[in-house]
Amino acid sequence: MTSDQPLRVELKTLHLTEPFRIAHGVSTERQVLRLHWGDAVGEAPFVPYYGENPQETLRWVQGLAWSGSPVPEAGPRAGRLALDVLWHDAVGKQRGLPLWKLWELDATKLPPACRSFSIPTDLEAFAEKVRETHRQFRVLKLKLGSGNAEFDEAIAAKAREAAPQATIFADANGGWSVEVAAAIIPKLARYGLAFVEQPLHHSGGVAAWRELRQVMPHSPLPIYADESAQSSNDAHALSGLVDGVNVKLLKSGSLKEAREMIHTARVLKMRVLLGCMIESSIGVTAAAHLAPLADLVDLDGHLYVADDDYCGVKFGSAGEVVLPEGPGLGVAES
């Protein structure tokens, strides 16, 4: 698929509705790479822990003279993903179908969506936010890894108190050591959590996961990998050590590889959480087209963006995913 239309490239700064606190640090804004090609659009976010330079990525894309050809296999992660999303949007528009229909997926069988909370500073204000959010979303995700295990447990306790009927899971973003994880996970089980995501820092590799299983051979809660599961190969390496994986487009690098990672997880009997980064509705909606393949959806990154200039995937009154019907990504400027 080629075109003589010029590729337009820009870096865009997204401002957040509030400071977003996780174990990696605190963010008040994020940058994304935004591409336009005719009426097609693509986007990929820059995430601090990948260490990619936005300006270098911008120059890399500008130097490609891209016109619909296959996405290069080598190059900056965000640049390659933005091109891949752009290409899929263009193909879907050309064929007049949203991606999920192009892939022949069943949008009547969508998993529940969750709403995430960053690490709070005021537990009472946090509890009120949990109560308010639970009126729509039945599944809630808690960011832990605050550096204080007792405070992490207090966050879980306060969330359960505020939403007794909610399905709640926790994400430590690698904020615990093996020793802390083995000590706190049984305590978190008291609050009826569904699972714990990425308790260990990804820099520890598979060895850290093996060590956790040695000191806690029978975890009272299922354990999912996020930062440690970047690809299908990582899923294979973690087989028998984790119960599920979080699949994200930026980690996979393309929609095709994300689908392959989901398939690999299924073969390995792992559960699949479909996630995203903090990004606009363009990137989140691109991921949402894979929702019929997942067990749970964590696609609320755009809801933290104060100046999201696109609309796409939506959530119903019970927090259910509503996929777009428009062709390609199905996004539109808002």
TrEMBL record:
SUPFAM superfamilies documented for this protein: Enolase C-terminal domain-like (SSF51604), Enolase N-terminal domain-like (SSF54826)
Keywords: Metal-binding
GO biological process: amino acid catabolic process
SMART domains to which the protein is assigned, alphabetical: MR_MLE (SM00922)
Record domain Mandelate racemase/muconate lactonizing enzyme C-terminal: where: 123-222
InterPro entries: DgoD-like, Enolase-like_C_sf, Enolase-like_N, Enolase_C-like, Mandel_Rmase/mucon_lact_enz_CS, Mandelate_racemase_C
GO MF annotations in UniProt: metal ion binding
Record-stated family: Belongs to the mandelate racemase/muconate lactonizing enzyme family.
Listed name of the protein: L-alanine-DL-glutamate epimerase-like enolase superfamily enzyme
Lineage, broadest ranks: Bacteria, Pseudomonadati, Verrucomicrobiota, Verrucomicrobiia, Verrucomicrobiales
